[in-house]
Amino acid sequence: MTKSTIGIGLIGLGVIGGQVAKVLTERADMLSQQAGAKIELRKIKVLPADMDKPIARSFNESLFTTDDDEFFSDPDIDIIIELIGGEKPAYNYIKRALDGRKHVVTANKEVIAKHGLDLMNFAASQGVSLYFEASVGGGIPLINPLQQDLRANNIKGIHAIINGTTNYILTRMSIDGIDFDIALKQAQILGYAEANPNNDIEGIDAVYKLAIMASLAFQYRVKPEDIYHEGISNLDARDFKYAKELGYAIKLLAIALQYDNMIEVRVHPVFIRENTFLANVNGVFNAVSIDGDLVGHVIFSGEGAGPKATSSAVTADVLRACKDVLTSAISKGINLSTQKSLKPISQITTRYYMRLNILDSSGVLASIARVLGQHDISISSVIQKETDDLSKTAEIVIMTHPATSQSVDEAIKELDNLDVVKKIDNIIRVEEL
Amino acid sequence: MTKSTIGIGLIGLGVIGGQVAKVLTERADMLSQQAGAKIELRKIKVLPADMDKPIARSFNESLFTTDDDEFFSDPDIDIIIELIGGEKPAYNYIKRALDGRKHVVTANKEVIAKHGLDLMNFAASQGVSLYFEASVGGGIPLINPLQQDLRANNIKGIHAIINGTTNYILTRMSIDGIDFDIALKQAQILGYAEANPNNDIEGIDAVYKLAIMASLAFQYRVKPEDIYHEGISNLDARDFKYAKELGYAIKLLAIALQYDNMIEVRVHPVFIRENTFLANVNGVFNAVSIDGDLVGHVIFSGEGAGPKATSSAVTADVLRACKDVLTSAISKGINLSTQKSLKPISQITTRYYMRLNILDSSGVLASIARVLGQHDISISSVIQKETDDLSKTAEIVIMTHPATSQSVDEAIKELDNLDVVKKIDNIIRVEEL
What is the rounded distance in angstroms from the CA atom of residue B235 to the CA atom of residue B181? Predict the structure, then answer.
């Protein structure tokens, strides 16, 4: 028997939840036609406080429930959409929904980054599906391409600008020549950064998204805590000035590479050549470059956040889940590779940009070069920048050839102990795309 | 009963067919694991001449057949892949496969552009699926995003660089300052253009691809013959020189727009601002920008052709068809909108670049401006370029404000009759992205 109505339950009535509820109701006819069955938003599970929101008035009051048991045990709900964000209680809700054999659609990057593979396997064992396109890159298709369109490929690498807040801040710092604190303030005023911006500026948000993409791309359990990360708060207007002079842009990149059964995953600021595509992705835009052994480099770009863009991805997932409901498709779990292992950050090799404050006297460069040389770090170029006559110090910028993280850490420690080095101002990796 | 083996039949052993056969055999384990059933390439339908190709030696001879009846009636073939290209006999093969209730995967842009909607509906009536991701943009996911990821959106527009041959030629003309004929020769030597390059340089190839994308995006039957098109062979090194001076790039764009229930579809060279994303897509790369009312602008980019990239898309489609085989998914036809209509090219409004050779004497500009003004074309800027003292002629470049195609055609005819206008060198639309 083919179902004629597919019931949807929604958890959460925040900005994303409200927008999704709007799309599901306002576009019900168009979506139902596409699904081949009537799609009906049956219940919205809310907190009592949600009922006072202006958005609540757009919906019939009978849609709302604060009663978990009523919501999860409604036999007419086939698909549950989770849009409250954060790990708990969202994780428990998703688990409970799958346990009750409901298909689940979520935009929750934290839950998927931490528990996605287990939840996918649990969904499969329950005979239902779990979709999470909106967890990475807002409305930009990324999860579905990794799970479907590119799956004949061995994925060699992912390079991603995947956090709009930090990309906005970096764009402002680059274009306006302003310092980090001021750029962050601007982002907060415009609503691009939260009052507590730590998750974004420290790279945690990008870590979650990279964990999700890398796990799918490499069929390997990449946990958030496996991903080395640095934030952007140490960047200085001077770094942008020098980057520009040298022909580079500074971006916060999420990078995942696979070679020789080794996996390399990291999130940190990088110098990338200004003529590359990613260097020119500005403002709150996201862009992900995926390198497959058959397809070559494929780029996906667009607005990475916002309620409308996110509702596009959530609704597409709902339609996919509808197809599963109608065809009783048997969802498959994910088969993880056991051959691969993670490369420790200490062994990862890149070029480096180093900005140092040194004593402006003869022989200083020679001492620095000697220390670097002892750690197998060879110098590609050195430029002496501003000199301060009063303090007799100078700022120098060193670009190195490829060196391991470990060598650089050790060299930096040693340099810091040299009397002639006043301060290590910044050390930033240089990535060749 | 769940099928344990899914049989594949392949039509064609050209460069694409050979590569797909390689992927299906060399990656059989990985693909089978992903499909959840053994994927087996059972038969390759070839022409007798194919058997002499070096690629033929890579496969067991028993795989090959030249017998249509044997091929199409093999009960163990569930999915047929068509990779011979061209309208006939490919169309008949696809029809016959669907008629025999085989799922079909094809990379054939001509067949899909001309018959895609009917074939999709026929497939649905037969209870099987028709997939054609590789028909547009090689390995770049475009069809599946339009059919799945973006379908909660009302699509407002598509702007696409969708033909690698012409984009390569335009890139060479722009960077090297060379003329069209030389750039075409270079493209032919490098294998980026065919011996008979007409389909590419006249925009026919782009027309097919735009017809496919626009039909899906707008749920409207956009036929290839509905699409206005101009090729690139009239472009001159001078146009590129002036474009650069004015801050523009010249690209062959495929454009589809939808507004007020009107649909606008066209393929022609355009001036686009040099700081836009599409202006910086160079060489054989393709890029498609899709504007959805929820998702905003999403960009998909990558290599748009080549056997490996194409095999990535074909294989993804095979895996989708496998899921349909296993779930007995009922394919849906496409519901076409009856509310919409095509806007005639004469009514389409854009800005224009005009390059004219005129008599170098006083009052000439005034006469030209008068003619344009009589046709409601207002001038945004005029630059007098090279002057030839001997012939007493000068070259001028006019940038206009938005005007309809019809006004411009009429004005040009009138200008051409002016004694002071020696030659209309070129007229190119200017597109604001």
Answer: 10
Q: Using CB atoms, which residue from A152, A292, A300 is nearest to B27?
A: A152
- Cβ neighbors of A399 (< 8 A, separation 6 or more) are A246, A351, A352, A353, A354, A379, A380, A381, A382, A430
- Residue ranges in chain B whose pLDDT is less than 70: 1-2, 330-331
User: Residue B152 and residue A316: Cβ atoms within 8 Å?
Assistant: yes
How far apart are alpha carbons B178 and B79 in whole angstroms? Answer: 47
Mind listing the pLDDT tens digit for each residue in A262-315?
999 999 999 999 989 999 999 999 999 999 999 999 999 999 889 999 999 999
CB A366 within 8 A of CB A387: no
How far does A196 lie from chain B, in Å, by closest CA? Answer: 27
Give strand pairing partners of B32. Answer: none
User: To probe the interface with B, which of A298, A310, A330, A331 has the most B CB atoms within 10 Å?
Assistant: A298
Nearest chain A CA: its distance from B303 CA (Å): 7
Q: How far is A297 from chain B (nearest CA, A)?
A: 6
Q: Which two three-digit tokens encode residue A413? A: 């420690």
Q: Walk me through the domains of chain A, giving residue ranges and CATH numbers.
A: 5-139+307-327 (3.40.50.720), 143-302 (3.30.360.10), 346-430 (3.30.70.260)
DSSP annotation string for A36-49:
TSEEEEEEEE--GG
**Which residue type occupies A350?**
T
Q: In terms of pLDDT, which residue wins out, A3 or A133?
A: A133
Contact A322, A114 (CB under 8 A): no
Q: Could you say which DSSP state residue B316 is in?
A: H
Q: Do A312 and B34 touch (CB under 8 A)?
A: no
CA–centroid distance for A13 within its chain: 23
Query: Would you state the structure tokens that stand for residue A162, as one six-digit string?
Result: 């995947």
Contact call for B298 and A299, based on CB within 8 A: no
Q: Across the interface, do A295 and B280 touch by the CB < 8 Å criterion?
A: no
Pairing of strands A403-404, A349-359: antiparallel
Q: For residue A330, what pLDDT is reported?
A: 65
Q: How many CB pairs under 8 A join A and B?
A: 161
Of A344, A347, A354, nearest to A406 by C-alpha is: A347
**Catalytic amino acids of A?**
209
Distance (Å) from the C-alpha of residue B366 to the closest C-alpha of chain A? 42
Q: Inspect the interface and report whether the beta carbons of B152 and A23 lie closer than 8 Å.
A: yes
Q: Which of A138, A296, A332 sits opposite B302 (nearest CB)?
A: A296
**Chain A residues with CB-CB distance to B144 below 8 A:** 144, 148-149
Judge: A148–B320 Cβ closer than 8 Å, yes or no. Answer: yes
A29's torsion region: left (phi>0), alpha (psi -120 to 50) or beta?
Answer: alpha
Start-to-end C-alpha separation, chain A: 53
What is the interface pTM, i.e. ipTM, of the complex? 0.94
Residue whose token pair is 């069929």: A219
Nearest to A315 among B152, B320, B335 (CB): B152
Collapsing DSSP to helix, strand or coil, B71 comes out as helix
A315 and B139 within 8 Å at the Cβ level: the answer is no
Instruction: Report d(CA A360, CA B276) in Å as an integer.
Output: 44
**Minimum Cα–Cα distance from A330: chain B residue:** B327
d(CA A65, CA A106): 19
Give Cβ neighbours of residue A317 (< 8 Å, ≥ 6 apart): A105, A131, A132, A133, A134
Does the active-site annotation cover B209?
yes
**From the candidates B43, B209, B251, B422, which is the catalytic residue?**
B209
pLDDT at B389: 83
- For B74, list phi and psi in degrees, rounded to 5: -65, 115
- Residue A252 to residues A161, A278, A348, A431: CA-CA distances in angstroms? 7, 10, 17, 11
Tokens (6 digits) for B335: 């519901």
